[in-house]
Design brief:
alpha/beta; Nucleotidyltransferase, domain 5; six-stranded mixed β-sheet
Length: 154
């Protein structure tokens, strides 16, 4: 019936229909004002992009079935494909920071040599990466561009 009205086959206007007036059209999200936490992935050096040197990592979180359940924090090295996975309480920036601190404590003094740079997405859980790893270069991928961190997304 609504299709017939839209095609003007019936002499009723949309304003006369109470349900049609209530339906609101979805507006596109304004991504211009999206918070960018740090340096863009475009500024990574060729050494990192071409996987020439050990110590450049990609980080992400893996969510289970429920949003409130614990999540996995995965960190993948780009050259050797070494993966570190730890379980954290939630997907908040403080829990991610605590998880990274556990990993840094495992490697001790070697951490600055092992973690030279980290690339993540623009999720709010990674907003405190520079505080958790002040010795590493932090890069953020573009929104909706999971292919820029292919090792971790796979």
């Amino acid at each position: 019936m609504y299709n017939y009205i839209a095609l003007s086959l019936i002499k009723v206007k949309n304003i006369d229909l109470p349900l049609r007036v209530k339906i609101k059209t979805k507006s596109g999200k304004d991504i211009k004002n999206r918070c960018i936490y740090g340096e863009s992935i475009e500024n990574r050096t060729n050494e990192i992009n071409e996987r020439l040197d050990f110590g450049h990592w990609e980080i992400d979180t893996v969510i289970g079935k429920r949003e409130s359940s614990p999540v996995l924090l995965t960190i993948d090295e780009r050259v050797s494909r070494k993966r570190i996975i730890i379980k954290i309480a939630s997907r908040t920036s403080s829990d991610v920071r605590d998880g990274i601190s556990k990993i840094i404590n495992q490697y001790g003094e070697l951490s600055p040599k092992i973690f030279k740079s980290i690339t993540s997405d623009n999720g709010s859980e990674f907003s405190e990466l520079s505080k958790a790893m002040p010795f590493a270069d932090i890069y953020y991928a573009h929104p909706h561009s999971s292919f820029e961190r292919g090792t971790n997304e796979k």
